[in-house]
Design goal:
There is one protein chain. The chain is mainly alpha-helical. 63% of the residues lie in helices and 6% in strands. The protein contains 13 helices and 4 strands. It has a two-stranded antiparallel sheet. Strands 3-4 form a two-stranded antiparallel ribbon. Strand 1 and strand 2 form a beta hairpin. Helix 2 packs across helix 3 and helix 4 runs antiparallel to helix 5. The chain starts with 14 loop residues before the first helix and ends with a strand. The N terminus is likely disordered.
Length: 333
């Protein structure tokens, strides 16, 4: 599969444009699409690319079909390997998969066993999601594949250990601390966020540590690969780490007080089914709002001035002989 950059339905140069873009990519209905639908979408995009002329007029049915095809490909296909991303690891699956995970973290009794269980489940999914959506080479060597597998396992084990240790350690520390009931409640609500945010950054950096060593591919404006840059990898991972800190904040900090307010309504607190529905609804809405807001902080297709890269990139020229002043790279999610 090939993902052409012919036009976008929303402006990717602005934060709100990227939020609009990612809101479309997390639509769960995209998970119902088959490989045949992906092939059909790719054929439609290829047909447009091969036709002479400009894009269809705004509001036309043809333009709508092209936008839908591009959205499906953006949501389902890795931008570098051009292979379909495994279904549970696509952006559209992130919210449905995380609803029971977040519910387990927030609603289960704060025991050591529960803290360890849900942090382990969360980091297992995070490791798989990071692996599926990371910056990847189109044709990796056998050694690169072995290194990727090794880094994945190391990151998974280390991030799980960090998240479980933080969650269990902080919970046990709160039990022993002399605090007012109100302060204890506030701090208990922050524990899951601290563990998830800390481990999320650790997970992302470890999973992609090989990029810091070997660099990530950078391209010129025509899509020609110029080489691998370690400094570009550093910029990309910094932005990914910031997103991983921002993402769990509204998901793990906002729902507890909102749920507490909802439970003050007698009908909600006394009806078990309605109570569960309210809790799950608040968690789901928090996830759906937080995901596009966090991953849209920075463009997925980064632009970097060559002055921010190694000296070997400073004197490069395009195929037309013009100096290369900036490069493009896939930041990953």
């Amino acid at each position: 599969f090939t993902l052409p950059q012919f036009f976008m339905a929303s402006d990717q140069s602005t934060y709100f444009g990227r939020v609009q873009h990612f809101v479309k990519l997390i639509d769960p209905s995209l998970l119902l699409k088959t490989d045949a639908d992906l092939l059909q979408a790719q054929a439609l995009i290829d047909e447009f690319k091969n036709k002479a002329g400009s894009a269809p007029p705004p509001g036309s049915p043809e333009l709508k079909r092209l936008w839908e095809a591009q959205t499906l490909l953006d949501a389902s296909v890795h931008p570098q390997t051009h292979e379909p991303i495994p279904l549970p690891l696509r952006l559209a699956a992130f919210v449905p998969v995380n609803i029971p995970i977040v519910a387990g973290m927030l609603l289960s009794p704060p025991t050591v066993a529960n803290a360890a269980l849900w942090q382990w489940v969360n980091q297992t999914y995070n490791a798989l999601f990071n692996w599926a959506n990371a910056n990847k080479s189109k044709d990796p060597s056998d050694e690169a594949r072995r290194n990727e597998t090794k880094n994945t396992l190391m990151a998974y084990g280390s991030a799980t250990a960090v998240s479980v240790s933080l969650a269990v350690g902080l919970n046990e520390g709160l039990k022993r601390a002399t605090l007012s009931p109100g302060m204890r409640t506030v701090l208990q609500r922050v524990v899951p966020f601290t563990a998830v945010a800390g481990a999320g950054v650790f997970n992302a950096v470890l999973m992609r540590s090989n990029e810091l060593i070997e660099g990530i591919p950078v391209e010129d404006s025509s899509g020609r690969t110029l080489g691998k840059s370690r400094l570009a990898a550093r910029h990309a991972l910094t932005q990914v780490a910031i997103s991983r800190i921002v993402l769990p904040a509204p998901v793990l900090i906002l729902p507890p007080p909102l749920i507490a307010l909802a439970l003050r309504i007698p009908l909600v607190s006394k009806t078990k089914a309605l109570k569960v529905l309210t809790e799950v609804s608040i968690i789901s809405l928090s996830l759906w709002g937080a995901l596009p807001a966090a991953i849209a902080l920075f463009p997925q297709k980064m632009k970097l001035s060559v002055t921010h890269l190694e000296p070997s990139f400073h004197e490069l020229r395009t195929e037309d002989g013009e100096p290369v002043t900036e490069v493009l790279l896939n930041k990953g999610l």
